[in-house]
Amino acid sequence: MPEFAAHHALGTGSPNPNGAGKKDEPNAWRSPVAASPAGYQQMGSPAMGQAPNQYAGTPAQYNAAVQQESYFPQQPTPPAYLPYQGDQDVNNLAGQMGAVGLGADQAAQPKNKKKHRHAYHNLEGPGGSSQAFSGTPQDGAPPQYLNQNSPQVGGAQWMEPQITPAMSQFPAPANTLFSPGAQASPMQYAARTPAAPHQIAGGAAIGSAQGRVDPEQIPSVPKSRDAPARYYLENVYPTMEHHLPPPAVIPFVAFDQGNSSPKFARLTLNNIPLSAQALASTCLPLGMVLQPLAAQQEGEQPVPVLDFGETGPPRCTRCRAYINPFMQFKAGGNKVVCNMCTYPMDVPGDYFAPTDQSGVRVDRLQRPELTLGTVDFMVPKEYWSKEPVGLRWLFLIDVTAEAVNRGFLVGFCEGIVNALYGEPEEKAEESGTTTRIPKGAKVGIVTFDKEMHFYNLSPNLTTAQMLVMSDLEDPFVPLSEGLFVDPEESKAVIKSLLSQLPSMFAEFNFPEPALLPTLNSAVAALSATGGKIVCSLAALPTWGPGRLFLRDDGNMHNTDAEKKLLNTEHPGFKKVAEKMVQGGIGIDFFMAAPSGGYLDIATIGHVSATTGGEVFYYPNFHSPRDTLKLSKEIKHTVTRETGYQALMKVRCSNGLQVSAYHGNFYHHTFGADLEFGVIDADKAIGVMFSYDGKLDPKLDAHFQSALLYTTASGERRVRCTNIVASVSPNTGECMKFVDQDAVVNIIAKEAAARMTEKNLKEIRGALTEKTVDILAGYRKNFTGNSPPGQLVLPENLKEFGMYILGLIKSRAFKAGKEPTDRRVHDMRMIKSMGPLELSLYLYPRIVAIHDLDEKDGFANEKGHLVMPEGIRASFSKVEEGGAYIVDNGQVCLLWLHTQVSPNLLEDLFGEGNNSLKALDPFQSSLPNLDTHLNAQVRNILQYMEGTRASKALTIQLARQGLDGAEYEFARLLYEDRNNEAQSYVDWLVHVHRHIQLELAGQRKKEDSGDGVGSTFVGLRTPYWG
């Protein structure tokens, strides 16, 4: 019986969810019998049978060069601009292994080159030979790369069939290379094609391209996203049949077959090495990224809620793992064997069901906990710490002079009304209840400046009653009734109060807020029930107990002392954070610095990081531009799935143990559960594993996370997430099942966790070392003997180098001066980012809107939105007269070239807007026009808004030469030389040189064994120094 069939013994009759002819029938992929780990007989490693290559029969031409109507004159297609024969960058960059000879066969000629480019810019290390590598001819066909014709075992589902070298025609660059005659702008200079610092082997005549690496031939992140995105428009992701999840950035429908969806959990390796020594040879971290309450996509089965009454869900009596699809029933159904600790226990009488001849329970298909990887269990009283009630929302509103004068207070109050009751125009259409928060949840409002003001919102009052608490040293809550009310019953009172607050406090003008006493009284108000605080702040809290002062005077940047600014030593804020977690309370801050001032996010944000909340930061808040973003983000905070009073435990198979957790939570001792005041759909946690022995290759490795939480509607539940990976004695096989998004996420979270201990230069060095170690480990141990001049990349880690470069260039880690508020905000954000948000943050998606195809931005005949292809993040790809959307999940810029067509501007922004200067620089959304282009761009933006995390999508104009946001546009072009770091090409050359030194045994570690690099994830020791 083949491995695959053994693993799905019960699923044999089910149609392949991805089969041809099934694509567009409604719900055709809901197979009548879910293919699942049913009989679970282990033969070798059943969980990871070889994934079939389902990408046959998909059109090969991804981006045939089509000239369509555009807003500037037609340009002749360069003669060598042949259509792509398949997507080499996704599948065969230079042969099946993803071997990148940096600048391999270049048949295409850029338009302005005088001489032809010759082949093989073969980069040799310092000890390189003078001959062409392995005697490869200098002008013939490209070399046959190692394993070129080997079957694509670990290849992803969306990959193309085999590409032969003859088909490998790369197109010319999108626009002409810059000629020195024209004055280059700083951005053009940063995007120049750099010269590689290496000798070319054999002294071949290279012509004008002497020593250059062709930027067209290095792995492209946009292509690695576009191909799978197209594939998953029409196919589902069955979680047991496929073992390599789709890239995190793309939308996909996961079909839960017993293994959790990648939206909830991603393993760095879906095929795990046998021992710690085998893992060390890959240099990869063994970890899991968990996003337990992740939002699901339309078309996915909602997570079922199961109630086992007073007894609670069945659990292993030894390791306390919850019942899951991988537990095996023996002895006719009387015994169940735990998949974590292999302990056989008796099945409780009320849970008994007989088994059939293949050892499968007869009621299995009626029991979601035995067929699905992610379920919610309702839990009885012994799991309660206090009586569960609907979530209490407490809005703390800053009413100091800065908030009032700069429009932040008006925006915040409007945002709360919008979040609770919807837009004014929505109300007329809806009938019945109009609140957006779950039934049972309640709302309270407190304002503060140098005093606190509590409001009685009782529905039998005509207007809210205000009680002033001026005792800051020992504040108490002056209300017992009426502080928390049902937002529907008290709708009139709440709306009138929020509309009056800005004018009420306009005449007071107290400049200094007292934050800590307000937080303490909020804890007192919520201590009986737990809940969620949403707090606005527009100035440094310099009044009363817990006052803060300006710590960052700008002199400590780029010094060892900088790390002190990224942390807090303030006892008052640390204590209130602990009290919140113990009370089951979490807090989100909306912090605005209207004049760009210092807010000490390191200290204030510590409270939200410890309690599992987040900070929304507006560094230069300007109300006409930012009020829409503020309003959308408050609405998202209030309406996304939120749990509170949460505890989390992660369990894994015998032979493995949890070695570290990374994220925003409270953890008082290592063995204890993680504690969260609140946890929501956008928060992720990184979990690292180490070996405490050898794994058994006959058994799979299992991981289970259990999150005990109270829902916003007041139910106490456990969200259980199960994931399985096979164990392989052949470590090379494991490299075929690497999840790039999870690896980058774990490394980023660990690096962020070290920012308060190590200086930034050491961390950037460690990230570089880590990249070299992973790629050199692959080269040394798993590729045989490729020519030394080639940079060989693992098939599933081709874009890894670019993502790590993006991390080094991010605001959290970059060299140079960066305000500590922004640095520490990004650091904490990275610690809680899910894979989707982090992937966008490290490499933005860029779409050209000046040459959209007429079908782009509209639904195709199957109802799927057609998205234009992404563009690489380099100024060399920017065309004159172009208009580009740049979205990194945090900000969305609309960059307009100085020579952009007036017709395009009128089509996009309306009549009269026919020049850049005519546009309103502070507009944050597009007008709703009837033009084709306007509809396309609005649809594209709506699609982008649906595939992001907690930050709202509003556009910010970046007009070339006019707006300050252009600096941000330049910063986001991560493939160019910027952010005090190299360009992508230079960086790959640098990494390649170190790999060659490592292979030659000449690499000097940038640290001598006691620094940060030697102790980076999965390296020589599992912990940092």
Automatic annotation (TrEMBL):
Specify residue ranges for compositional bias: Polar residues.
Answer: 51-74
Q: Give a Pfam family name.
A: Sec23_BS
Keywords associated with the record? Cytoplasmic vesicle, ER-Golgi transport, Protein transport, Transport
Region (Disordered) location: 1-89, 106-142
Where does the record place the Sec23/Sec24 beta-sandwich domain?
Answer: 643-727
Which membrane topology describes this protein?
Answer: Peripheral membrane protein
Query: Which InterPro entries does the annotation name?
Result: ADF-H/Gelsolin-like_dom_sf (IPR029006), Beta-sandwich_Sec23_24 (IPR012990), Gelsolin-like_dom (IPR007123), Gelsolin-like_dom_sf (IPR036180), Sec23/24_helical_dom (IPR006900), Sec23/24_helical_dom_sf (IPR036175), Sec23/24_trunk_dom (IPR006896), SEC23_SEC24_subfamily (IPR050550)
Say if the entry is tagged with keyword Acetylation. Answer: no
Is Protein transport found in the keyword set? Answer: yes
Q: Sec23/Sec24 trunk domain: which residues?
A: 391-637
- One GO term of the cellular component aspect? endoplasmic reticulum membrane
Q: Where is the Gelsolin-like domain?
A: 866-911
The record's subcellular locations are: Cytoplasmic vesicle, COPII-coated vesicle membrane; Endoplasmic reticulum membrane; Golgi apparatus membrane
* Residue ranges annotated for the Sec23/Sec24 helical domain, each copy included: 739-838
The Swiss-Prot or TrEMBL record annotates one GO molecular function as: zinc ion binding
Tell me the Gene Ontology biological-process terms attached to this UniProt entry.
COPII-coated vesicle cargo loading; intracellular protein transport
Q: Where is the composition biased (Basic residues)?
A: 111-120
Q: Give start and end of each Zinc finger Sec23/Sec24-type domain.
A: 313-351
Q: Which family does it belong to?
A: Belongs to the SEC23/SEC24 family. SEC24 subfamily.
Q: What does this protein do?
A: Component of the coat protein complex II (COPII) which promotes the formation of transport vesicles from the endoplasmic reticulum (ER). The coat has two main functions, the physical deformation of the endoplasmic reticulum membrane into vesicles and the selection of cargo molecules.
Q: Which PANTHER family does this UniProt record tie to the protein?
A: SEC24-RELATED PROTEIN, SECRETORY 24CD, ISOFORM C
Q: In its UniProt entry, what is this protein called?
A: Sec23/Sec24 family protein-like protein
Organism of derivation: Clathrospora elynae
